[in-house]
Amino acid sequence: MTLRDELLKSIWHAFTALDVDKCGKVSKSQLKVLSHNLCTVMKIPHDPVALEEHFKDDDEGPVSNQGYMPYLNKFILDKVTDNFDRQDFNKMCWTLCYRKNLQQSQLLISNDDAFKIWCIFNFLSEDRYPLIMVTEEIEYFLRKLTEAMGGSWVEERFEDYKLQLNSKQQCLNVWEIISLVGTGHFSKGMDRQTLSMGISEVYQELILDVLKQGYMMKKGHKRKNWTERWFMLKPNSISYYVGEDLAEKKGDILLDGNCSVEPLQDKEGKKCLFIIKSSQKSFEISASDKKKKQEWIQAIQNCVGLLRQGRPAPHCEARQKRRELRLKQQAEQEELELRMRELQTANEVKQQELENMRKALEEAASYAAEEEKRRLLTQTELQDRYKMDLEREKMVRQQMEEQVAKKSTELEQYLQRVRELEDMYRKLEDALDDEKRARQDEEAVRRLQARLLEEEATKRAELEQIHLRQQRAISKTEAEKQELEKERLVKESALQAAMEQLEQLELERQGALQQYQTVMQKLEDATNNTKSWKHKVAEHEGLLRLIQPGSKAQPMINNWGIASFSEGELSLREKQWQERKNQVTQAQ
């Protein structure tokens, strides 16, 4: 909880006390006095005209809490620093509010004790207005108070009180808390002094941040003598006084993350020694016994550890954890309530569906009864009809038997026709196989023809090259003509041989053409045979679908006509042509 939030809680009590008519508004004159007192206690320069200027646009009536908050934030809380005495600030706010709300005559505690409870309430109350303390914080405060008084906590008594509290409300305001403690409801058997000391101890721990206190001996820095002092440990310092009434303060030991505390050996007649090493000085201290010595060392080490980690005082951290736990439980409770509402809604829907189903079942039952009556009425009629239908069925059965016998004869005839068609199909497959072989022969002849065409093209290219070389040779000088003439004669002889080879190839082409015509004749015969079988199959009611021959590719044609060679003939002729070519090359 920040400083602003702590201050706002005390100011809220003072503002509420000034609202005499309980209408939520306070007059401007009272707000001036309150603002002046706040500025005085918190050591802030007060501007008496600021309030009038802030509300110059308002009417002459009183100002609400929401209307006073902007002025409070801007002119007071924004300027406040932590250099004022918070106890004086709380006493000023307490003085404004307790006379109106507190009935001192009915309480077992003093006004000072009531003030301390009021401060504890502000520390433990929720951060929402109007300020209240929930049951968890009430239990925490009462436990602390019981432990401080040296009593034992009676869980059953608080559970009974919590049941009474929950039947009315789940929280208490500050005056109800003061009345609860002041009437001695949870301190029966304790005298007023014990109750007052318990309240003071809880107040010092929660409000003044006193973590430990007690008498110990301290060694002086100048005179080196040992003097008894009242020590008070806080989260960031250790203060020591002449007595426990705190009337005269003798000094402070400032604590930080670099401080340390270590035990010492007994010396100078003093026992239970330990030393506190701060950034400025070292302090030698003697406790009354070993237990207190260990308690003080552990408490100081805990404070130094918290300062190193940047964590707040233990009770502040515990308060924050309790609030976070309550918020978490509240969120879980809200989620559970939401789920319960959803389940309740779903249950209502299911109940409605069940009601609708029940009505539907009743309607179905009545409808079924009516249907049963109608069925009984129609059953007799159906029996009579069934008798007549049975007689008709007998007659129809006889007719069906006669038809089955007739169909059996027709089936035998049909099976005979199927067997004939199967024989025709096998013959047709043989014809198609012949056609496939003829097409394969044709394809082989076409490949041979293509190779011959490539040979012819290659030969023609060679002849053209020879002719070009001859033309270039003619254009040379006269001196070279004689030598070239001899070469020309040799080449002409080679050309003559090539021409003879071409003629031989032409003769072979003619033979291949005759073979191609023979194959084409076979293919035509196979096609005719296929067509005749197709005609026969069509006459037998189209029970079989013929496999149609594929389309014939266009045969390759060279300059002298259709060329057709077999694979072996083409290889033989390629070999012969290569030998002749090698002979011509050697001759040149």
UniProtKB/TrEMBL annotation:
Location(s) in or outside the cell: Cell membrane; Cell projection, Lamellipodium; Cytoplasm; Nucleus
Provide the coiled-coil residue spans.
Answer: 326-529
Transcription as UniProt keyword: no
In terms of InterPro entries, this protein maps to: EF-hand-dom_pair, EF-hand_SWAP70_N, PH-like_dom_sf, PH_domain, PH_SWAP70
| Gene3D superfamilies the UniProt entry points to | Pleckstrin-homology domain (PH domain)/Phosphotyrosine-binding domain (PTB)
Q: Name one GO cellular component term.
A: nucleus
Q: Which GO molecular function, any one, fits this protein according to its record? A: DNA binding
Where does the PH domain start and stop, copy by copy?
Answer: 209-305
Q: Which PROSITE patterns match?
A: PH_DOMAIN
Which Pfam families has this protein been placed in?
EF-hand_SWAP70_N, PH
DNA repair listed as a keyword: no
**UniProt KW keywords:** Cell membrane, Cell projection, Coiled coil, Cytoplasm, DNA-binding, Membrane, Nucleus, Phosphoprotein
Function, in words: Phosphatidylinositol 3,4,5-trisphosphate-dependent guanine nucleotide exchange factor (GEF) which, independently of RAS, transduces signals from tyrosine kinase receptors to RAC. It also mediates signaling of membrane ruffling. Regulates the actin cytoskeleton as an effector or adapter protein in response to agonist stimulated phosphatidylinositol (3,4)-bisphosphate production and cell protrusion.
Q: How does it assemble?
A: The SWAP complex consists of NPM1, NCL, PARP1 and SWAP70.
Protein name in the entry: Switch-associated protein 70
Q: Which organism is it from?
A: Channa argus (Northern snakehead)
